[in-house]
Amino acid sequence: MRFTGTADYVATSDLTTAVNAAIVLERPLLVKGEPGTGKTVLAEEIAKGLGAPLLTWNVKSTTKAQQGLYEYDAVSRLRDSQLGDPRVSEIGNYIRRGKLWEAFTHPERPVLLIDEIDKADIEFPNDLLTELDRMEFHVYETGETIRAERRPIVIITSNNEKELPDAFLRRCFFHYIKFPDAETLKAIVEVHYPGIKHRLVEEALRVFLETREVPGLKKKPSTSELLDWLKLLVSEDVSPETLRERDGRKLIPPLHGALLKNEQDVGLFEKLAFMMRREGRGG
Known about the structure:
By secondary structure, this protein is an alpha/beta fold. Strands 2-5-8-1-9 form a five-stranded parallel β-sheet, with helices on both faces. 43% of the residues lie in helices and 14% in strands. This is AAA+ ATPase domain-containing protein. Pfam families: AAA_5.
């Protein structure tokens, strides 16, 4: 079982090596990188490339590790007992299976995505250690032990909002998705928009990469935002010549709302344009 990428996902050689190493070691693959570099999509494409089912656990700030195992709905059971519902005699009726339970008992070996683990409380990763190591957990309410029939392929993403515990990191295979270089970006664009105008892509990539390098940007535009911007450029029939005009009055890229996502960054470009005009460089 090896991942080699898919027709819809441009995977670099170091990324495919990391995925396959995690599969061989049977350890979770911890993937970090800038938002918009394809961390979440990677899990979807691994599942597609391996022909495996995908289970997704979207982590939120309020998520607890126990929810990945199961939850016992005691409130509903109490309410049903007051109403005389015969279901109360079977406690299993009030056990809600979590994503780890689903992954451990799935008839096929699944890909389990634990998305944005750093959003949760700092104790969340530590609380998962035993279950991810042993691939089993105990259900106290029913007395049963849930064991993984097949060890799932676990992909964990993080945006580095919080530091993850060392004990957790030791149990993972780590890979950082670097922001793609110009050639890789071209390949990604071609995958999403086959046959798109070559000159437009060349100019758009130049403007996009220059935009990312502007000092002081609060949020650099990502790959996904580049794709949105290109779609708009084609839709509005913006010419490569228009993108090439970078004087003081036109410093902000056309349709910049696809690239710049907060007022501080737009204001930064306006300030730069003003400074260029004052220096006589804006014409």
